[in-house]
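anyone seen this seq b4? input:
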Amino acid sequence: MSRLSYLKENALNAICPYFTMFPLEYPLRHLNKHKKNAPVIMDPFCGRGTTLFAARKLGLNAWGVDSSPVAVAIAKAKLATCEEGQILELAQRLLCREPQEVPTSEFFNKLYSPGTLRDVCALREGLLALEADDTNASVLLRALALGALHGPLNKDVESSIYFSNQMPRTFASKPDYSVRYWDERGMRPPQIDVLRVLRRKLERLSNLGMLKAGSYQQVIQSDSQSENLLQRVANDFSIVVTSPPYYGMRTYVQDQWLRHWFLGADPEVDYSSGPQLEHCGVNAFAESLGKVWKNMAASDASTLRMFVRFGIIPSAKVDAKEVMKRSLEASNVNWNIVSVRSADTASKGKRQATQMKSKSAAAIEYDYHIVRE
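predicted toks r here
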């Protein structure tokens, strides 16, 4: 975990654990160098919104795009602002409603205690009903609930910050595996006071009432390859800070299946790939990533700089630098690679290659500084 992650002033950035994240130091380092020019920032693979949070800290205007509804729900919280009391008041109001649908599968009955499951479903349905008329409070409450949805058991239930039986924090294990794991160890779901957990998580946050630029509406769910992307976002961004998905990483939808359910999906694992970069070969991947770089180059800003952290999962056995080079060429844009530096191994940032189920060695990541000619 990065050093900055431990500071209370940055707790909002960790509102929901998410396995595809680069350390806060990375965007802050680059944005700090250019903040005097008040640039507009763009992240076309925003994930949980670390770039957006860095921009928030520096008072810069930022936009984020991601194809995952889970990522977007978390990232929006980085550009939301309201008082703690408003969030708790909304949570109390939603918890008073009786949910219409409560899953009855063995998995859900062993994941949550009956009262906790009822409250989780009440929050889920209440937030879904508000989705078309979101507010800063509902955006933050949704991200808080996603962050508390599953995680490790705490020996002291009174200090728990998760609703669930034993689970990873960053991704949801599959139902059959989970039930077998709990049964073999005699694990039962704890009796959790959902509102108390939300209050406890809120107490860790700070500066929710301070936002100098932008709003949560500047985070959109879209495929950054889309030809009409710049019709939906500001087209005057001059700095891009991002980290594309690793080539060969295909399980984003499956690994976040429980959070997808909370956001309105069916209570089963969706094994479709969802909208993402092509992974059926290096050339296909480079071509699809090239479409994103082409969109970034269409910015109206007089100067455009991209700071890109890029890597490959070890099992792919391809050269990350070569893939990046091909993607830039595929964009048909004149890019100048100012510098390429090793970002050390991905394991140091607990990034995409270090999921619990992965036993392979961590990949080397590279930091690119690229300028549009």
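The radius of gyration is 20 Å. The chain has a mean pLDDT of 89. kinda curious what u guys think
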